[in-house]
Specification:
This protein is α+β, with helices and mostly antiparallel strands. It is built from 31 helices and 17 strands. The chain folds into 3 domains: 26-58 and 119-444, no CATH class; 454-573; 586-757, no CATH class. The chain starts with a helix and ends with a helix.
Amino acid sequence: MTRRRLSAESAGPPVLDSSPTHVSPWDARSLFAFTLYLALSWAFFGRALFGHFSDSHIGAGPDTALMMWSLVWWPHAIANHLNPFLTHVMWAPSGLNLTWQTHIPFAAAIASPLTLTVGPVATYNVLCLLSITLDAWCGFVLCRYLSRSYWPSLLGGYIFGFSAFFLGHLTFGHLHMLLAFPVPLIVYFTALRLNDEMSGARFLALITLLLVAQFLESLEVFASMTMLGAIVLVLGWPAAAKETKRRLLKLLKLIAFGYGLTCIIVSPYLYYFFVVGFTSKSMFPATLMSADLLNFIVPSPTNDLGRLAFLVSIWKTFPGQSIAESGSYIGPPLILVALLYARSHWREPFGRLLVTFLLVVCVLSLGPVLYVWGRPTMSLLPWWLLERLPVITNLLPVRLSMYAFLSLAIMAALWFGAPDAKGWLRPALAGMVVLFTLPNGSGAFWTRVVNNPPFFGSKIYRNYFSKGECVLILPYEDNADDMLWQAQAKMYFVMPQGLAPAVQQYERRRWPIVNAFLRRSYIPETPEQLKAFLAAHHVDAVVITDRQIDIWRSLFSTLGVLPIRVAGIWLYNLHPDEEHGWDRGLLEMRARFDKERFSALISAANEYVLKGGSLASISTAKVVDFKLISPSLLFGPAVVSFEPTLSGNSVSNTEPWLAYGLWLSPWPGDRVSVGEFAWYPAVAPLIARLRGIASEIYFPYPSRLAANATPPESQADGFLLMTFTRDQLARAAELLEAPAAQKPSAGATSATPATLKN
């Protein structure tokens, strides 16, 4: 049997042949491939975890804690007979629909025995290392079947599993994108069935299992896989032989049946997704989540070559500037392999299909606008057409790069494994492909130490609040591991926070103090805003870590509660049974906040001009630096970068025009623009007062607000922007008469005209 398989592997690529010999994915050589990929995964990404598997983890940023939280939530909900799709343990008291969020229920269910045994951190690390291994191995299995060549397929598996796409998502711990091994397996089983090497019943069972697994790992990957599968069918159908078309039609019936069974199996998820959920566009604009054209040849620092200073300077210009979403790097050697494959196989239907598909995916990954070196150059029609489709509108263009690497892996296996492959060129080129795509060689690049105060790590929290109490934790969301602490506590307490971009945006618009929780912001009536938030969310206790207590000590002293310092945190017990009188009407609070903040900004801009400042140099940062807005009303932590080891978690500078939640900048025509994020019902009276003074009013920007117009309810939250001439600015400042509390304190140093001009 072994001799038959080896001879089959040396016979050449039997693409859609009528009688190819199937090489088992479970033979010794295949298991060696799995072991090799696992060893590489450990060597590249896991070596810094030895001895620290439960107190360090792969990846950086808030998504790592979200993944660990998900590993705990799903088995917890099922074991306690809770609805796993709706949770109230975060974003209390309203809760959250998890079907519209990033979660990994399939992995959580499969890994639940491990999670219960070693905890979420160690389980998460295992899944990160195993996901890269499985992606590479499943890519290898597909390549080996199509090419019948072992060593070229080993390279193909490496190209897919260790691609820049997966390396980027590994830096942020995106398990929902890393666990994509069903994709090559679905292609593999489809090829088997198309060649009559698998029974229809077995194919249906396996394809349904894989579809369910991918759906419950990442709905985004499931949707993109389905969309691109349809594109492959459209591209390949015209050139297919009559017999192939007959087989395809039979195959499509089974696939459609598999999708139908998948929908039945995941119907509870779909119910909450469509009925109880909500529909919205992606929280991340496609223009910021698109591949830069240079990214195909310029790596991010996730690759070893990407650590070179001049390449880092180019990478930093890419849209979004996210290391996780700069995964389109192919590299010159692999591009050359694709060109050589295209030259050799363009006349073959399968070769032409593979090359065309690669080009289509690369174009789609560029998104709606072509970026070159970070500069938008022209609109791209294909994405504008696709994003009109349901669900597809939530796809991020750059994430389609995964399918480019799958097609490149197949091309490489077929080209390197061709029967006429002789001489030194192909081995040398294979070595260059590996060299140019090596992951970042620093073990510390891929890991970070878990920030786990003893208060949570040693279960001390049980001595200070009861099960089910609502606890506000600072640092908040993006700056914290609050979800990990809740997961390690097995959902013992609930939180008025979590990680969900749509809900976070909603909370920020409703409760201005949330902006300060996230990053340093200008918050008028700060104590009142804090107390109203605590009352509305029924917060029983506040936990502030040692590293943030200095930021919040003065504000939380206004609560009239003495904190307790215990095990690395400061605890404020709010005694909810007592009457605080903190409840304030939301509309009243928001109206006062928006009016006073906008008034303070107009007053500061007018004073800046009166002191000799130039409209051409005006900015929010300048009026704050010159204390034209009181620094005493700036609250919150500095913005911290989560890019792994690139900036050493240094403070990142905000744009000078948009800072502290305020906008102030020059405007064409010797004018100034003043703006803030606002809630229309709250700012409607302010807009009415200034309508006859301002040159232009935009809400939500960039839509110009016509006279007597009211934005639709779906656009009640947005950016309010008004433009003023010098005279209009003075009239607006006089009309609004900003309260004294918003003006510079008596002890503040007044800026001189000479200082402002500088």
